[in-house]
């Protein structure tokens, strides 16, 4: 039997995710998939997986589990965190953004996430749950995919696929910036004309805050309500990842990975795909602003992001063993002094 | 050039307008209303585009009056894809004839349809008259969405045209047959929902282990057939044994 993860304590709302369920939205089946697609690609690359391998999406904090049935290589990407690996009473600590080889029988505990509300934990071979409609992504609302469509629970055993040929463990020398550098960029429409001039100016000119009603479906924002010309209601039409719909309250909702396929509220704008991962990282209370760009500018931004991801993937290098020991010691000290994020000093 | 003049009207570019939906999608909007002929254009456009399969096309989502085209901006651009889509010809005018008509057994009222008496009260009809009107029409499957396999079907008779509940239920049981405005639908899975519940059907509308995963297809017709509690329970058992497929007729 191949290696598996025996979960003792899942992180909050931890789910199995991959690149999403493509091709079934016409049947009302949402795409789902990782909130932070950049993190998914980097985490999978760090353990030698194909980009479409299924991984664990962690929210706020990572899980605790035991590796059984064989060794496992794992990597966390998308946030900073401390990965504790305990073997026969000896605990070693590792940072995110690098592969960690864990022997069979070892206990792994991943602490609070820093710098992002979500992260991706990839394991070599991928989380080997059955494909449903071409994807292993968890559809929480539909109740299928991943582990029967639910978050990972204590006691779950996650099977791993056959691990790819293992070279030396890799690390990402310079992790990407996680916070958006400026306003989140949007393309206005498809129903921007449902709003007054003032409504549009408010949307692009005032800050919003992520409310507590934020999950994988979307983030309800708090701030100045947007004025409609007539009403919020439209004849339902299609929704894309990043669509920003505005119900009668006038407060925008940014729709994320688990968004429904169609909806009946006017959509003032769509977040551009290059900024969608950054939106997925935001936590309740985070402040954000929007800036409008053209479709062509949005497409160019996406191409630049792809180039940047390509550059990051090409920069993966074998872990420097000497550096690892120093890093582990540094992390130990940081933990004692209460510093959670590995990047707060950068 | 050289095309017969009357066929020029069938081009998507002449029938629809494009609306921006970020850099991974655009809407091809054929109208603003819910109408069978507009909806038929949408579904025809989805079929024609799937056949053309231009580079960078990811998937399409037909809705009542528009087609959402998802694309990969690393493989194409909205401008390039809209040129291709606009030039596609929908061919023969479609009038939205129903492809096939399903007969769906429904237990009306009671626990299965907790809003039936309220709907009767608000509309001034008796519960029996509400059932006769709801079961008296053949409905068109316009769109599937909101939930996996949730079909928006219409048009409901004007007498049953009521707004959604002002306070949606936290949990609507699967199989609930419901109405809102001029539409009727069946909740395929348990979900929060604001439609008014008239009854329940055991028929399984969505099965992710099948491809396609839904029973209905756009352009299908659906007729609801009132059944008693014994028949409902019997169909439930057959569905549980995967031994039930509802009756379906193909119109002449």
UniProtKB/TrEMBL annotation, chain A:
Keywords annotated in UniProt: ATP-binding, Coiled coil, Hydrolase, Nucleotide-binding
Gene3D superfamilies per the UniProt record, alphabetical: Cyclophilin-like
Keyword Nucleotide-binding: yes
Coiled coil: 288-315
GO molecular function terms attached to this record: ATP binding; hydrolase activity
All residue ranges annotated as the Carboxyltransferase domain in the record: 26-308
Cross-referenced NCBIfam families: urea_amlyse_rel
Protein name (database record): Biotin-dependent carboxyltransferase family protein
Organism in which the protein naturally occurs: Ancylobacter mangrovi
UniProtKB/TrEMBL annotation, chain B:
GO molecular function: 5-oxoprolinase (ATP-hydrolyzing) activity; ATP binding
Pfam families the UniProt entry points to: CT_C_D (PF02682)
Matches recorded under InterPro entries: CT_C_D, Cyclophilin-like_dom_sf, PxpB
EC number, as in UniProt: 3.5.2.9
Carboxyltransferase domain mapped to chain residues: 16-216
Keywords, sorted A to Z: ATP-binding, Hydrolase, Nucleotide-binding
Domain of life (superkingdom): Bacteria
Protein name, entry field: 5-oxoprolinase subunit PxpB
Organism: Ancylobacter mangrovi
